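Bench notes, bay 3.
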Amino acid sequence: MKTCYLFVLGALLMLSSSLARAEEIEAANIARAIGDGQWEWTVYIKGSAELLDNVDCVEYTLDPTFKESIQKICQKASDATPFPYSAKGYGTFVIKIKVTTKDNHTLSLSHQLVFDRPGPEEGQIALTNVAERQGEKLWKWSAYINAGADILGKISCVQYTLHPTFPNPIQEVCSVGNSGQPFGITAIGWAPFTLKATVFYKDGTVSRLERVLDFSKAP
């Protein structure tokens, strides 16, 4: 009898711990204006890597005006925007969210879409690069985020969009690194192009940066 009691108590403690940790998951969104009063937005969930690895699927219930108002996402897809769902629209609304874990627990959330949360102002953060000549026509270049330690500490990931001729034109960096080039990437190319960077912050805000790569100072 005592053994049975201890087993049940242990199971309840494990369940309580699991549910408490699941509640550390929250939702966020990013958005950008695309003209005529319309916005393109993405909703996603946030949490520690351990918690997100245990997520099986996320079900988003949208405003009933959407043709398909229930969207189930079972692919993490990105460390910057885990389990994302994207759409376009004119107004904000509350999204109901059901998170199902691989150990058969369910967490219910709600998220109010926000369309007016830009990241730090221009001048506080910038995309920069250095370059080094590699032969007659090639350059090895590195691009990274130039910002103060306070802003760098708020960044979760940076998504770079390279020229479409690169084999992997979308590259994501989710570690500040220790090379003196925060959230940096390195590649080899033969000509400058406009590099774009989407900076995702831990609070759900976003900065969108771009820079024409500068090879003029390459040794």
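Next record in the batch:
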Amino acid sequence: MKSDYLCNSLYETLKGIGEAFEVQDFEVDLGVKGNSYQYVANLAGVEKGSIDVETKKGNLYIRAERKKDQDVRYTHKGIKEGKLSIALQLPEGADASNINADFSDGLLTVTIAKKNDEQSGKVTVNF
């Protein structure tokens, strides 16, 4: 039946996307500030020693771990615990070799410089 084919096709497409990029486990904002891109990730409750940030093949990977409070018996659980990760495609023009990351007050701020495509200088005129 045609609807079965469409469902299977959609499933395979989404499955492929999921394999290429990790599932988003926390909120991330992306903006532009001056000559750089800025990612701000909400990592409240994460210990700073568990945070790992890397770039590879045009992607930004953020991994962290939020430990569970063993002494609390929750009646509602909305905050994800355990290993957290996200993979984000870097914007075109991002300089993956010029990155800075700061963690403060539960927010991880990753700043990536824009590539400087504008070369300036004296041009020699040949006669």
